[in-house]
Amino acid sequence: QVQLQESGPGLVKPSETLSLTCTVSGGSISSYYWSWIRQPAGKGLEWIGRIYTSGSTNYNPSLKSRVTMSVDTSKNQFSLKLSSVTAADTAVYYCARGSLMDVWGQGTTVTVSS
Amino acid sequence: DIQMTQSPSSLSASVGDRVTITCRASQGIRNDLGWYQQKPGKAPKRLIYAASSLQSGVPSRFSGSGSGTEFTLTISSLQPEDFATYYCLQHNSYPLTFGQGTKVEIK
């Protein structure tokens, strides 16, 4: 059974870059799309973007100028970088499989604060 | 962007009640829609895909219907473990967009 686990710093300073990694276990990362989603406290879900194992990406236009996604098939991992963060980027960040998001990680809380 | 409008935003219901949640898309999305359940402090869990297909392991009291711009999630007999927030997601076009959520509370 495929499982996803997000990892990365829980605290990021304003104007710096948020970096998260999602590790896929129990199955291969290959031949799937992989998504990132975030959820500010008490609010709804926002799709950040997705990456295919070839490296092809689609980003939400609202974040596109600040988002970079990458994949490392040798480690069964994919990553998210969000640059120039502000307090508005404080949220729980989730990784999920595909655009249909049938499998989710447990989420990791990222706080942007000095 | 395709806007997904869920209604109601919240509802109160009793165990055993039939509950219906609606999601309307701002333009046609065929059946490219999923429904997700989220409990406090937990990741969302997919219940329905392709608008009406039940995810493996999900109780049969959950069902989905619709196509085009109007979709419904129905819980035929609400159980205590069903009190949660429900979201729809369209994956027809980018950016993928979620509805704003429907919180199902205990009456």
Keywords:
heterodimer; A: 114 residues; mainly beta; four-stranded antiparallel beta sheet; 10 strands; 49% strand; globular; B: 107 residues; seven-stranded mixed beta sheet
Describe what is shown at a glance.
Chain A is mostly beta strands. Chain A has strands at residues 3-7, 11-12, 18-25, 33-39, 46-52, 57-59, 67-72, 77-82, 91-97, 108-112. The A-B interface holds A 35, 44-47, 50, 58-62, 94, 99-102, 104-107 and B 1, 34, 36, 42-46, 49, 55, 87, 89, 91, 94-101.
Write the layout of secondary structure elements.
The complex is a heterodimer of chains A (about 110) and B (about 110).
Chain A: E1 3-7, E2 11-12, E3 18-25, E4 33-39, E5 46-52, E6 57-59, E7 67-72, E8 77-82, E9 91-97, E10 108-112
Parallel strand pairs in A: 2-10
Antiparallel strand pairs in A: 1-3, 3-8, 4-5, 4-9, 5-6, 7-8, 9-10
Chain B: E1 4-7, E2 10-13, E3 19-25, E4 33-38, E5 45-49, E6 53-54, E7 62-67, E8 70-75, E9 85-90, E10 97-98, E11 102-106
Parallel strand pairs in B: 2-11
Antiparallel strand pairs in B: 1-3, 3-8, 4-5, 4-9, 5-6, 7-8, 9-10, 9-11
Q: Can you walk me through this structure?
A:
The complex is a heterodimer of chains A (114) and B (107). With 114 residues, chain A is an all-beta fold. Chain A contains no helices and 10 strands. Chain A is globular and about 40 Å long. Chain B is an all-beta fold. Chain B has strands at 4-7, 10-13, 19-25, 33-38, 45-49, 53-54, 62-67, 70-75, 85-90, 97-98, 102-106. In chain B, a hairpin with a 6-residue loop joins strand 9 and strand 10 (97-98). Chains A and B meet through strand 5 of A and strand 5 and strand 10 of B.
